[in-house]
């Protein structure tokens, strides 16, 4: 067996694992990433999975040295948000001007973010291994590092970060318990060509069957949709032809962008809320979707994960990794801060979803009033815009 040592092993080279790898490498740590896939490639066509990145996430990507590369390739900044309810007068609209910002966020394809983070990580000497058949042998203790077997290698690490997504094997191996509920919804995603340009406006309409988001892509006449549809309706939509799906989008969005046409394959993701009740065990800690997955209705999942990266990199700076007591103290601070933000976000998503997901006429009336108010009260609108920017 060949013995290898690293300071920090990150399982999962998605956007969260790779961003963390870049920041830790800039702190002078030896970092190894275990990722089952090869580097995501850039395509000419707009990819299906996109993320709405807030200012904080973009700043973090800047620190990783990746944002300039991403921005040069293809991004869709948006300057205005419109949210409305199909069945009531409820309507909110706010713009970057309300908060004196240049924009409210940017829509970026996931594979573009991952491609450039990977490139940066390699430039920073991060050792990225294409590995699926790794096995955690132990979680380390006061005197010894955690250990993996990797083919004929024994890899030891002072810290293991599970950034391996919602079905995290690291989390399962460490027996970190989770709380979850199934939204009984599927997130249907597709790229839709529209007759009218989106003009850099992110739109979301709340329907009795679930929220439909129309996100402005870098192409003026293409939006990326995320339709979080209730289960029976989702199945009906998925059984439709691409032409019929586009007609549904056109009708349910009130033809706000004119005639619609499907311009990509259609994919569906089961939607589930999940968070780990414990994030840490010995020399193992979680980050990103491995620690929490939330409803995509406010497009905050990746942003929340980048918040983990920022905090984790900060608490790890200059700590003596070998000293498990010191390490645990820092990790404890990370977990407390990030759990608090995750819980806030989950509560906000629930309030939104319940407030809008209802067919109860009294609640519908109330939400119309609640929504009409902020549209006229500037301080409230500003607050909402600030939340969107966080
Ligand atoms: C429909 C939909 C729309 C969304 N829209 C937005 C949005 O607009 N804005 C936003 O902020 N968020 C959004 N999200 C959430 C966002 O996509 C996720 O939060 C984000 O991708 C999480 O990144 P991650 O790196 O933690 O996990 P993942 O992206 O799941 O990456 C995990 C990585 O680990 C690797 N891996 C897994 N298991 C192993 C293993 N055993 N061995 C080796 N490697 C492994 C995987 O190959 C993958 O590369 C959306 C989610 C959905 C479902």
From TrEMBL:
The keyword Transport does not apply. One of its GO terms (molecular function) is 2-polyprenylphenol 6-hydroxylase activity. Keywords: FAD, Flavoprotein, Membrane, Monooxygenase, Oxidoreductase, Transmembrane, Transmembrane helix, Ubiquinone. Pfam families: FAD_binding_3. One of its GO terms (biological process) is ubiquinone biosynthetic process. PROSITE patterns: PROKAR_LIPOPROTEIN (PS51257), UBIH (PS01304). InterPro entries: FAD-bd, FAD/NAD-bd_sf, Ubi_Hdrlase_CS, UbiH/COQ6, UbiH/COQ6_monooxygenase. Residues 6-345 form the FAD-binding domain. This is Ubiquinone biosynthesis protein UbiH. It comes from Idiomarina aquatica.
């Amino acid at each position: 067996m060949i013995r290898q040592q690293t300071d920090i092993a990150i399982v999962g080279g998605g956007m969260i694992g790779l961003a963390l790898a870049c920041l830790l490498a800039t702190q002078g740590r030896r970092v190894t990433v275990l990722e089952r896939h090869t580097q995501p490639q850039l395509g000419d066509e707009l990819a299906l999975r996109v993320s709405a990145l807030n200012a904080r996430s973009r700043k973090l990507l800047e620190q990783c040295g990746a944002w300039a590369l991403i921005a040069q390739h293809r991004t869709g900044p948006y300057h205005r948000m419109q949210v409305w309810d199909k069945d009531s007068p409820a309507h909110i609209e706010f713009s970057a001007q309300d908060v004196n910002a240049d924009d409210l966020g940017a829509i970026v394809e996931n594979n573009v973010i991952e491609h450039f983070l990977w490139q940066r990580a390699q430039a920073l000497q991060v050792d990225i291994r294409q590995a699926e058949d790794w096995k955690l042998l132990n979680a380390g203790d006061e005197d010894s590092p955690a250990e993996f077997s990797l083919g004929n290698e024994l890899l030891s690490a002072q810290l293991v970060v599970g950034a391996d997504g919602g079905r995290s094997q690291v989390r399962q191996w460490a027996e970190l318990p989770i709380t979850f509920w199934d939204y009984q919804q599927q997130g249907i995603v597709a790229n839709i060509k529209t007759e009218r340009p989106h003009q850099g406006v992110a739109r979301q309409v709340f329907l009795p069957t679930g929220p439909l988001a129309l996100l402005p892509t870098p192409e003026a006449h293409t939006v990326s949709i995320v339709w979080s549809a209730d289960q029976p309706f989702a199945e009906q939509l998925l059984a439709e032809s691409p032409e019929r799906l586009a007609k549904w989008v056109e009708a349910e969005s009130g033809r706000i962008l004119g005639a619609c046409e499907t311009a990509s394959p259609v994919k569906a993701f089961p939607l589930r809320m999940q968070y780990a009740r414990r994030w840490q065990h010995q020399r193992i800690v979680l980050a990103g979707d491995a620690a929490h997955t939330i409803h995509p209705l406010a497009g905050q999942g990746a942003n929340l994960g980048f918040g983990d990266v920022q905090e984790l990199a900060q608490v790890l700076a200059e700590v003596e990794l070998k000293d498990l007591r010191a390490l645990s103290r820092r990790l404890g601070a990370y977990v407390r801060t990030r759990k608090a933000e995750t819980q806030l976000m989950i509560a906000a998503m629930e309030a939104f979803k319940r407030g809008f997901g209802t067919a109860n006429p009294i609640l519908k009336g109330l939400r119309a009033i609640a929504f009409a108010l902020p549209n006229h009260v500037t301080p409230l609108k500003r607050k909402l815009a600030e939340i969107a920017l966080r």
